[in-house]
C-alpha cells in the first residue's frame, strides 16, 4: 500500500507498507516504480514525505525529474 494525497498537481506520498511476510522481496520498490510511472504519465510531480519513497529517489536518480521543486502544503 502506498498512501498519498493529491494536491496542486503533485502526489504527496506519506506512507508505504507491505505485509511483514513479504518484506525484503522488492515489492515496495515495484509498487513505487508503478506509482511513479503513473505520475509521469499524468504529468504530475511527487513530494516524498514517506521515508521509503525518499530513499527510492536516492536509489533511482533517473526518476528525480518527478520531484516537486516547490512542495505544496
UniProtKB/TrEMBL annotation:
- Annotated coiled-coil segments of the chain: none
Write out the entry's keywords from A to Z. Transferase
Q: Which Gene3D superfamilies match?
A: 3.40.630.30
What are the residue boundaries of the N-acetyltransferase domain, all occurrences included?
Answer: 1-68
Q: One Pfam family this chain carries?
A: Acetyltransf_CG
Tell me the first and last residues of the signal peptide: none
| UniProt KW Protease keyword | no
Offer an example of a GO molecular function term for this protein. transferase activity
Can you name this protein? Answer: N-acetyltransferase
Which organism is this entry from? Sphingobium terrigena
| Lineage of origin | Bacteria, Pseudomonadati, Pseudomonadota, Alphaproteobacteria, Sphingomonadales
Amino acid at each position: 500500500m502506498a498512501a498519498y494525497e493529491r494536491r496542486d498537481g503533485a502526489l504527496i506520498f506519506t506512507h508505504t507498507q507491505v505485509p511483514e511476510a513479504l518484506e525484503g522481496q522488492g515489492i515496495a520498490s515495484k509498487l513505487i516504480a508503478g506509482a511513479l510511472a503513473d505520475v509521469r504519465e499524468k504529468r504530475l510531480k511527487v513530494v516524498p514525505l514517506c521515508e521509503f519513497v525518499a530513499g527510492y529517489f536516492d536509489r533511482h536518480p533517473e526518476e528525480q525529474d518527478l520531484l516537486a521543486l516547490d512542495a505544496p502544503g
